[in-house]
Amino acid sequence: MNQYTLPDLNYKYDALKPFLSEEQLKIHHDKHHKAYVDGANTILDSLVKARKDKADVDQKSTLKSLSFNAAGHLLHSIFWNNMTPKKNEPSKEFLTIIEDEFGSFDRFKQEFTKAAVTTEGSGWAALVYCKQTKRPMLMQIEKHNVNVIPMFTILLVLDVWEHAYYIDYKNDRAKYVENFWNVVDWAEVGRRMKTCF
Predict the structure, then answer these.
(1) What CATH superfamily is the domain 92-194?
(2) CATH 1.10.287.990, domain 22-81, yes or no
(3) What proportion of the chain, given as a percentage, has pLDDT over 90?
């Protein structure tokens, strides 16, 4: 049976310094992200075994746990690819879509930053694209799997769980979010946007 796998980073652990340290990335990727991969795979294995043994499964808790771990894996996988040590700029096509919705790129950054800083507890800020309305939108995701709007393509996501920044920023989430803009891979964000058309 196929299982989830922990993706390699597209850059070295020390490549995002001074904005994210090698220690921060190693622990976040190798420990936290891996825990979601392992958690999802363990649940999938338990479901296979239960079906083989014709055993009862607590569907509510099992599926909630599977959603939590699988969503954690998915969001982290996008998050790593959203960052790069190579400075690049948003494409004209992306900027046009953002400016049409938010009024300006700076306004988008302000709104995304506020979404990230004000996400309650552990969670994520995301720029998503709704194919039905053909509009980019912002979304706050609690934990990994609460407040997710189905069928929206995630273009840019920022992990604001404390484990994503505590080694480097302690409890200063706002500073972490501010520095995130220095490592955004706009080429990847633009590539994800093109999949929407």
Answers:
(1) Iron/manganese superoxide dismutase, C-terminal domain (3.55.40.20)
(2) yes
(3) 93
